[in-house]
């Protein structure tokens, strides 16, 4: 597809078919993330792809449990109204890409923190556009924020004793995730603001 067509066709897919995603497709998508711009070329990202049905359900359960345990606690539910629904989406998703920040982020200055998040955001956008170009559905997920420690511990436990045991460590921040798979719903449009609402051009 032409780039403009890919951008127009990308949408936040919330229903997936169980069709497996090959390792080669995952590698193609991560290759596009690898080429994203990054602040000072630090390339502050690492990606862990979860592909089995059981692992997807385990990750989904962490999100669903958060909602069940905290739904009557306003301080815990601020911004978390969609965590249960996100868990249900991940239950059916054939591949989940967890996005970690590969740096020692504790006590870092605010500017470096923002720069790292912008860089990681660019890598996720590259992944989504590549997935769309390959005819797949995807969903950028930030609800992982509410269970980021539990998810990080889960991944570290799964990597223990494997060749990837030191691939990430406890200081690597889990930033977000991306659901990936063959779409189980038709593409749909959502309302967008007009160019006039969001752009101001100043000519000197």
Structure in words:
This protein is α+β, with helices and mostly antiparallel strands and 204 residues long. Helices cover 44% and strands 13% of the residues. It has 8 helices and 4 strands. Strands 1-2-4-3 form a 4-stranded antiparallel sheet, with helices on both faces. Helix 3 (53-70) runs antiparallel to helix 5. It is globular, with a radius of gyration of 18 Å.
Mind sketching the topology for me?
Layout: H1 3-9, H2 23-34, E1 46-50, H3 53-70, H4 74-77, H5 83-91, E2 95-101, H6 110-133, E3 137-141, H7 148-159, E4 173-181, H8 195-198
Antiparallel strand pairs: 1-2, 2-4, 3-4
Helix pairs in contact: 2-6, 3-5
Share in β-strands: 5-15%
Q: What structural category do the secondary elements indicate? A: alpha+beta
Task: Please state the overall shape, judged from the principal axes of the Cα atoms.
Answer: globular
Q: pLDDT average, as an integer? A: 94
Strand arrangement, major sheet = 1-2-4-3
> In total, how many beta strands?
4
What's the story with the biggest beta sheet? 4 strands, antiparallel
Tally of helical runs: 8
Order of helices and strands: HHEHHHEHEHEH
Helix content: 40-55%
Give the end-to-end Cα distance, rounded to a whole number of Å.
37 Å
Radius of gyration: 18 Å
Low-confidence stretches: none
């Amino acid at each position: 597809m032409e780039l403009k067509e890919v951008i127009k066709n990308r949408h936040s897919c919330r229903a997936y078919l169980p069709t497996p995603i090959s390792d080669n497709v995952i590698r193609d998508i991560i290759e596009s993330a690898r080429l994203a711009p990054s602040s000072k070329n630090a390339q502050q990202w690492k990606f862990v792809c979860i592909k089995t049905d059981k692992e997807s359900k385990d990750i989904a359960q962490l999100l669903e449990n958060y909602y069940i345990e905290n739904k009557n606690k306003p301080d815990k539910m601020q911004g978390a109204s969609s965590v249960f629904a996100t868990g249900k989406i991940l239950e059916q998703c054939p591949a989940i890409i967890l996005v970690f920040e590969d740096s020692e982020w504790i006590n870092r200055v605010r500017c470096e923190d923002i720069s790292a998040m912008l860089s990681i955001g660019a890598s996720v956008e590259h992944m989504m556009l590549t997935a769309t170009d390959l005819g797949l559905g995807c969903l950028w997920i930030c609800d992982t924020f509410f269970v980021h420690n539990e998810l990080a511990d889960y991944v570290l436990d799964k990597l223990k004793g494997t060749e990837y045991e030191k691939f990430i460590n406890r200081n690597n921040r889990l930033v977000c995730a991306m659901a990936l798979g063959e779409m189980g719903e038709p593409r749909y449009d959502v309302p967008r603001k007009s160019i006039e609402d969001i752009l101001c051009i100043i000519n000197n």
